Amino acid sequence: QPSIYIKLPPKGKFYDKDSFIPTETGDIPILPMTAKDEMTLKTPDALINGQATVDVIESCVPNIKNAWKIVNHDLDVILLAMRIATYGETMTLSGTVPNTTEAMEHTVNLSAMLEDAARETITDTFATKSGFRIRVKPMDYKQLTDTQIGAFEKQKQYAAMISKEGLDPTEKGKLFAENFKQLTE
Question: Which of 3, 39, 115, 184 is least crowded, fewest Cβ atoms below 10 Å from its Cβ?
Answer without folding.
Answer: 184
